[in-house]
Amino acid sequence: MAASTLTEGFAILLVAAGLFFILAAVIGILRLPDFFTRLHAMGKCDTAGLSLSLLGLALLADDLAVTVKLVLVLALVAVANPTATHALARAASRAGVKVWRPDEPAGPAGER
Amino acid sequence: MGAPRHGGTRMRWLLGAAAFPALFLGLVLGMAELPEFGDPGSPASTHVSPRFIEDAAAETGAANMVTAVLADYRGYDTLGETAVIFAAGLGCLVILAAAGGRPNPPAPGMSHPFGSVILDTATRILVPVVLLFAVYVLIHGHISPGGGFQGGVLFGSGLIMMRLVWGPAHEGGTHRPDVTAFGPSLRGSLILACAGILGYAGIGLAAMAFGGEFLNYGTLPLGSDPAHVRELATLGIEAAVFLTVAGTVGVLFDTISIGMRESGVPLGSDRGPRE
Question: I need a surface site. Which of A86, B28, B136, B260 has the fewest CB within 10 A?
Fold first, then answer.
């Protein structure tokens, strides 16, 4: 492994931070009450988590070509993931999915 | 379908009832004679596979053996597969779109543009990358996983993205005057698919015209190195498959969205906020 201990430590820190965000997204999807709030959790935390993990892996890669590819994937995720979230929210809003309000009686999670 | 109703139908039904078990029994008995699945001593493992593994790269110029087998050794088989995909697209067109009588109407429904500023901007960034990557996958199929089918599907997904965000590519332009129509219309997709399958068969016929067998590219006048000639011809085949698959994906999306509109599925309805 050509990478120094400092680079390695930094990469591990980045991947761990990424995993934390993905965990937050999972908890958000399981716990939040309706489609829009779940999308809110998933879109932001997924993008952040995946980006940080990929950045960490790019630091660890031995081959420059692999690093470049990972950075390209990172750029693609950074554009595609928020856009997909936006498209989903837009479609749901157009289809008339009800927005959850805290003062309304809580239905079972997942009810639209 | 269903129970027999009169004499002729009953006769045919009885014939079918007799023929089906006979055919089934014959196939099962034939299966019993085949070598064990994955048997290393079977003829396929002792004769066919080593031959391809040893000679494929030198004979066809394709480092990816899957490409060598699919597009060269078994090119006839792949021609059939491409024709099946083309036929699926045509079937969809006939059943879903032609039933409405209008092949390319100004459609609301799913083919209504779904765009917003965000989607428009992201599509402008993503679609060129997707289309370029599709061509990369097509060309790189020689030496890595990829090829005409995969590249064609990628290209088709780029076409679908444009259709979803900007609406269908009519001959007369999109619903939004500020966005120019880009990408082939339903008719254009159909022409692409036809050109692909014609090109595939055409390369096969060209090989015949130069004195070889159908789809035996070795005789084509593309250079002196036989492996290089086969490599170029294989790329031509892959490009033809690419065109067929990309065109068919476009045809499928258009016909399904038109069919949904005809049957009143309320996708992309006008309820809710609009820009």
Answer: B28
- What DSSP string describes B167-179? ----TT--SSTTS
Instruction: Note the maximum CA span of chain B.
Output: 68
Chain B neighbors of A79, CB-CB under 8 A: 122, 125-126
Average pLDDT score over chain A: 86
Q: Can you state the percent helix, strand and coil of chain A, rounding each to 5?
A: 75, 0, 25
What confidence score (pLDDT) does residue B218 get?
A: 79
Give the Cβ contact number of residue B89 at 10 Å.
24
Q: Residues of A with CB below 8 A from B129's CB? A: 76
Contact between B273 and A96 using a beta-carbon 8 Å cutoff: no
Which 8-state DSSP code applies to residue B145? Answer: S
Q: How far apart are CA B264 and CA B258, in angstroms?
A: 10
Nearest residue of B to residue A78, measured between CA atoms: B122
Taking a C-beta distance cutoff of 8 angstroms, is the pair B195, B212 a contact? no
Q: Exposed e or buried b for every residue in A38-53, given b needs 16+ CB within 10 A?
A: bbebbbbbbbbbbbbb
**Sign of the dihedral through C-alpha B187, B192, B193, B197:** positive
Q: Which of B119, B268, B272 sits opposite A96 (nearest CB)?
A: B272
The verdict on ipTM greater than 0.95 is no
In chain B, % helix, strand, coil (3-state, to 5) comes to: 70, 0, 30
CA A15, A16, A17 angle in degrees (round to 5)? Answer: 90
Contact B197, B82 (CB under 8 A): yes
User: How far does B50 lie from chain A, in Å, by closest CA?
Assistant: 33
Do the Cβ atoms of B35 and B41 come closer than 8 Å?
A: yes
pLDDT bin (cut points 50, 70, 90) of residue A74 is very high
Instruction: Spell out, as residue ranges, where chain B has pLDDT lower than 50.
Output: 1-2, 4, 101, 103-111, 171-180, 265-275
CA of B119: which chain A residue's CA is closest?
A83
Contacts of A90 in chain B (CB under 8 A): 114, 116, 119
B245 close to B85: Cβ distance less than 8 angstroms: yes
Q: Are A93 and B272 an interchain contact pair (Cβ–Cβ within 8 Å)? A: yes
Task: Work out the percent of chain A whose per-residue pLDDT is above 70.
Answer: 89
